Amino acid sequence: MISSCSIKNKYYKRSQAIYIRAVKIEREGEQYGAYYQAVRSYREGEGGKVKQEVIHLGEHHTAERALESWPQEVQELKRTRPKQAAKLQYKLATLRELKEGEW
After folding, report:
1. Residue 63's closest CA among 3, 18, 1?
2. What is the number of structural domains in the chain?
3. Digit-coded pLDDT (tens) for 24-35
């Protein structure tokens, strides 16, 4: 039984959809890059759309890329920035849960 499927970085399950959203960074009309977020989209009440950030992926344009690189980033941060490493470790655990359960 397939509980979810991926179509162009969109993950569907029941009435909610989780997809990867690119956010462009612009300053004074110039584009400096982009960052990515996993976003849950659903309707509330009489047709009102709600987009809720599930997890911030930063420079990683897919959840799989984040899952591949974050463990190494956590190890590197543990030496120099332990609080930052703990935050990233939490995001990694959250993303793994989402991929196993809801996505």
Report:
1. 18
2. 1
3. 988 888 888 899
Token duo for residue 50? 């709600």
Weakly modelled stretches of the chain, pLDDT under 70: 1-16, 102-103
Reported residue count of the chain is 103
Count of CB atoms situated within 10 Å of the CB of 34: 13
Q: 84 lies in which domain range?
A: 5-100
Q: What DSSP designation does 61 have?
A: S
Alpha helices in the chain (DSSP H): 63-80, 82-100
CA distances from 1 to 5, 9, 16, 71, 102 (A): 11, 20, 18, 30, 14
What pTM does this model have?
Answer: 0.69
Of 75, 81, 80, 79, nearest in space to 92 by CA: 75
